[in-house]
Amino acid sequence: MEDLSEQKPAPTTAWLWQALTGVGLIVLLALHMMTQHFIAEGGIRDFAGVADYLRNPIVVLLELLFLVTVTAHALLGVRSILFDLGLSARAETTVSRALLVVGILTVAYGMWLTWTITQQI
What we know:
There is one protein chain. This protein is mostly helical. The protein has one domain: Up-down Bundle (3 helical TM bundles of succinate and fumarate reductases), CATH 1.20.1300.10. The chain has four helices and no strands. The longest helix is centred in the C-terminal third of the chain and has 31 residues, at 89-119. The mean pLDDT is 88.
């Protein structure tokens, strides 16, 4: 009889994305903290400082990438926790779809907010 405790499950696509976004978060969070808090006079930028900072399209791209990465990492974590509860296949599909919608709405709102701020420059 085969010992099942020695079998290692293959990583899923969701787990790989969770790991990749985790690594991405380390890099993007470091960049964000340095530029928004350590370099900024007084330790934090006011609205005018943020608007001025967002004049650089590379900065906008990095901040939006940070938003997408944080959102994906967080929602994949929530999904993993909910799946650990032993949901049915149908419930897992529903959870995945609901979290996808939440993620899309979150990123869309963040993009709209960034666009709104950049238009006030």
